[in-house]
Design brief:
- By secondary structure, this protein is mainly alpha-helical.
- Helix content is about 80%, strand content about 0%.
- The chain contains two helices and no strands.
- It is rod-shaped, with a radius of gyration of 31 Å.
Length: about 90
């Protein structure tokens, strides 16, 4: 009967170790899936910012190409112009 108690104790230790291992694996999987979501969101934000920046450069080049004096700083729209304000609002909304 004394030997039977020792076997029961070993089973309990084995179950506790197994549960701890499974908990660590579960936490690792959850952390990895959360990191993947964060990376996807960061990539999306990067792509949006890049698109807005490229659109701004294209707009500036278009304005300069059509300006009578492209080297004059007043050829570009000021920060209070409707074009600049609409681009700023779109960038903040994204």
């Amino acid at each position: 009967m004394h030997g039977r108690r020792r076997e029961n104790g070993q089973a309990l230790v084995l179950v506790i170790v197994l549960m701890a291992f499974l908990a660590v694996v579960a936490v690792a999987v959850l952390e990895l899936s959360g990191a993947t979501g964060r990376d996807a969101k960061r990539e999306n934000s990067h792509n949006t910012a890049l698109s807005v920046a490229e659109a701004g450069v294209a707009n500036a080049l278009s304005v300069l190409a059509n300006a009578p004096r492209p080297l004059d700083p007043s050829a570009l729209p000021s920060s209070s112009s409707p074009q600049v304000a609409s681009i700023s609002r779109r960038a903040v909304a994204s």
